[in-house]
Amino acid sequence: MAEKIRSNLFRQSREITIILPRRVAATTWLTLLAFLLVPGLASSQINAGEPLRPEWCRQLPRPQYKNLERVNVTDDWFEVYRVRPDVFAIYEPHQFEEVISYLILGSRRALLFDTGLGVGRISHVTAKLTSLPVTVLNSHTHFDHIGGNAEFSEVMGEDTSFTRASIKGQSNIYSRDALAAERICGTLAAGVRADSYAIRPWHISHWVQDGERIDLGGRQLEIIFTPGHTPDSLCLLDRKHGLLFTGDTFYPGPIYLFTPETDFAAYARSASRLAHLAPSLKLLLPGHNVPVAEPGYLTRLLEAVRKVQAGLVNSTVIEGRREYRFQDFSLLLAVK
Ligand SMILES: [Zn+2]
Q1: Tens digit of each residue's pLDDT (9 = 90 or more) over 189-239
Q2: φ, ψ for residue 172 (rounded to 5)?
Q3: Is 57 exposed, middle or buried (0-12, 13-18, 19+ CB in 10 A)?
Q4: What is the number of other CB atoms lying within 10 angstroms of the CB of residue 200?
Q5: Could you give all domains of the chain from N- to C-terminal order, each with its CATH number?
Q6: What distance in Å separates the CA atoms of residue 1 and residue 15, rounded to the nearest whole number?
Q7: Residue 5 above 50 pLDDT?
Q8: pLDDT score, position 81
Q9: Measured in angstroms, how far is the CA atom of residue 197 from the centroid of ligand 1?
Q10: For the chain, what is the mean pLDDT?
Q11: Strand duo 134-137 + 110-113: pairing
Q12: Ligand 1 midpoint to CA 248 (Å)
């Protein structure tokens, strides 16, 4: 979604157009807000009490959702789609990240791959979809994938120092920016406020290994460690059905590879590992934006990563990041 990267985030009388990636780090927003809060610019809109309606929000819903089967689950924050039999995408369209968690059912138990922002109660949604016991596994432990972890007693995780830091949660000082008005499309879930929003700590009930298999009863899932985006990034493979849940290692959009916890060389190795799987896959189920993508993206992702490594492609510097654009996705790296 290269065109999506250019977001007119604030409509103001002086028509200031700010170009930023689709999903932006909190620190950037703080800087940006400080800039905007000069007298006569954004203050009148902020004081008006109306949520700002940036471009990203006006562009929703994404057209791909028209072709998906919506599941009638009553909730004011989540939308649920049946992507495949017994595979549900639990989508959060009202926040800038547009994060997607997945509930995968077997005959004996269910796996929840990520728990979203922790704005809505994802355990209430999973309880409406299944009566099976639910175990959580995270694609990685960035805040927007772990928000509901504390609602579950069975949470698996990868044993990295990054994960061990994440499980302590995140206080409101670091979290509240995610729910600032310009990052919300529509209204927040009932009872949730930016000034009290935080990521609750959780407990790991089982440390997973690379290649470990999870038997849900009639459905086997395989854990593939794909470090790079974070040290604890992993993908989930349903070999029999040709499904690969990719988390933030791949999604159609600007892929974040600029934070201190990103290791681009490791990401390249992970991209290579996934590209080898592509011929055996039928569907990718990414962690943001849309819950369905063609497996062929993995081959293109590897080509893109190799071109960047070889210096064969030009970047555009935006808001302190180098953006390498490809068809339907881009790689956002830190400026060295
Ligand atoms: Zn992430």
Answers
A1: 888 999 999 999 999 999 999 999 999 999 999 999 999 999 999 999 999
A2: -60, -30
A3: buried
A4: 14
A5: 2-334 (3.60.15.10)
A6: 24
A7: no
A8: 98
A9: 19
A10: 85
A11: parallel
A12: 5
pLDDT of residue 123: 98
Q: How far apart are CA 165 and CA 51, in angstroms?
A: 33
Q: Check whether 7 has a pLDDT greater than 50.
A: no
Highest mean pLDDT among 35-44, 181-190, 290-299, 318-327 belongs to 290-299
100 and 286 Cβ atoms separated by less than 8 Å = yes
- Within 46-198, strands assigned E span 69-71, 79-84, 87-91, 100-105, 110-113, 134-137, 155-158
| Structure tokens belonging to residue 96 | 């800038």
Question: Nearest-CA neighbor of 258 among 28, 30, 5?
Answer: 28
Q: In whole angstroms, what is the distance from residue 222 CA to residue 212 CA?
A: 6
CA of 140 from ligand 1 middle (Å) equals: 7
From the CA of 27, how far away is ligand 1's center (Å)?
15
CA of 252 to the centre of ligand 1 (A): 14
Residue 19 CB neighbours (<10 A): 12
Rounded distance from Cα 33 to ligand 1 centre (Å): 23
Distance in Å, CA 253 to ligand 1 centroid: 13
187 falls in which pLDDT band (50, 70, 90)?
Answer: confident
- The CA 191 to ligand 1 mean position distance, Å, reads 26
Residue 53 scores a pLDDT above 70: no
Q: How far is the CA of 166 from the centre of ligand 1 (A)?
A: 12
How remote is the CA of residue 38 from the centroid of ligand 1, in Å?
32
Q: How far is the CA of 240 from the centre of ligand 1 (A)?
A: 27
Query: What distance in angstroms lies between residue 51's CA and the mean position of ligand 1's atoms?
Result: 26
| Ligand 1: centre distance to CA 118 (Å) | 15
Show the tokens assigned to 240: 């029999």
